[in-house]
Amino acid sequence: MPPRVRALAAAQLVNSVGDGVYYVTSTLYFTRVVGLSPTRIGLALTVAWAVGAVAGVPLGAVADRRGPRGASVVLAFGTAAAVLSFLVVRSYAAFLIAVVGYAVAQCGLAAARQALLAGLVEPGERTGALARLQSALNAGLALGAGIGGLALQHDTATGYLVVLALDGAGFVVCALLLARLPAIPPTPARAAKEPRLAVLRDRPYAVVTLLNAVLLLRMPLLSVALPLWIVTHTAAPGWSVSVLFVLNTLGVTAFQVRLARGVDGLTPAVRTVRRSGVVLLASCVVFAASGTGGLGAWGAVAVLVAASALQLVGEMQQSAGSWQLAFSLAPAHQVGQYQGFFGTGVPLARTVGPLVLTALLVAWGVPGWLVLGALFLGAGAAMGPVAHWADTARGTPTAARPAAAAR
To answer: In the chain, which residues fall in CATH 1.20.1250.20?
Structure first.
């Protein structure tokens, strides 16, 4: 692994350990220690991630204009400050301000770090580098979830405070690691006739982002809809939810780099995303089969594991292809703002996904799985012509550009 990618992976690992802690402990901390109701927490999080998604584009543009390394460092420190503020908030208003700050800093950091990677890594090596970062992220999440589990086991205010402080410290270390990377020069000032936030007028790129958001429904599928499906429609025991989560986390850690090999241009990226739609459809069909009668507990678990393995492959293919698309279709001098816009697919899927997937899968059952699979298949198939539209709209197709031009 090149030294620069190793440094980026180290920063990713450190802050994802904190993220893993946050994901498994924050809800109980906010309810039991801060004293907020689950409904108010959910409303605040929805507002926060909506604001964060909007803020990601201008913050990405700042990274382009001011330099992505400095922007990444500042936003990592900002995330740390937001997390540490959770330790002292005791009112809903303060909580809302803190969680909005957290979401804005996280979305901005994601865009700035992508721009930083684009400046540090050759175009043909970016997807492979992102695959290594994704492996580091999943390893960190698993470790952080284990640490958070200790706090959950003891269920004390002190325990929650300690692990949240660990999360904040992780982002401080992340900022220090990013600060040691080489500085990337800011991109030249925009042309006189060029919009300040050009990505907001790039309709083909917007459609690519929307199709990717449909494929990203696989995220709340694993974390929200599938646990509800298991307990309401299958004979599988409740602990199988944890088994599937571990399978997914370890699978991405072990195989994401391997699956990303060869995805180094627009054509292989489109092909990989199209295949991901097919595999995700197959996983939905097998998930639906887990709800049929007569399987018994162990039979249902076996079917769920098979479906999850398919879902894992589809997820890794979708990730590898979408990373390359996001870079290939972005102008070289506007990587930050374009990555910020492309990144809005994640909060969009996490905000809309639970409602859509609950209605499809929990309320509708087996037919809902087939509809979801058809959505995955259609989004994957449509990505090819839309990506071609986005590429040709730029004036010079990617395939015709020299590789260095994408830097």
So the answer is: 3-179, 198-399
**Other Cβ atoms within 10 Å of 32 Cβ, number:** 13
| The pair of three-digit structure tokens given for residue 287, joined into one six-digit string | 């998930």
Write out the DSSP string of 62-93: HHHHH-HHHHHHHHHHHHHHHHHHTTT--SHH
Domain 3-179, what fold? Growth Hormone; Chain: A; (1.20.1250)
Residues 6+ apart with CB under 8 A from 278: 377, 380
Are 87 and 165 a contacting pair, CB within 8 Å? yes
Tens digit of pLDDT at every position of the chain (407 positions): 678 899 999 999 998 998 888 887 888 899 889 998 878 888 888 888 889 988 999 999 999 989 999 999 999 999 999 999 999 999 999 999 999 999 999 999 999 999 999 899 988 888 888 889 988 988 888 888 888 888 888 888 999 999 899 999 999 999 999 999 999 988 765 544 566 677 888 999 999 999 999 999 998 888 778 888 998 899 998 888 878 887 888 898 889 989 998 888 899 999 999 999 999 999 999 999 998 878 889 999 999 999 999 999 999 999 999 999 998 998 888 888 998 899 888 888 888 888 889 889 988 999 999 999 999 999 999 999 999 999 988 764 444 333 333 33
Question: Long-range pairs for 285-289 at CB < 8 Å and ≥24 separation?
Answer: 285/369, 285/370, 285/373, 286/310, 287/226, 287/229, 287/311, 287/369, 288/366, 288/369, 288/370
Distance from C-alpha of 361 to C-alpha of 233, rounded to nearest angstrom: 9
> Residues near 367 by Cβ (< 8 Å), separated by ≥ 6?
none
Spell 213-227 as b/e; 16+ CB within 10 A means b. Answer: bbbbbbebbbbbbbb
Which amino acid does the sequence have at 21? V
- Joined together, the tokens standing for residue 269 give 């990226």
pTM reported for the whole predicted model: 0.81
CATH class as words, domain 198-399: mainly alpha
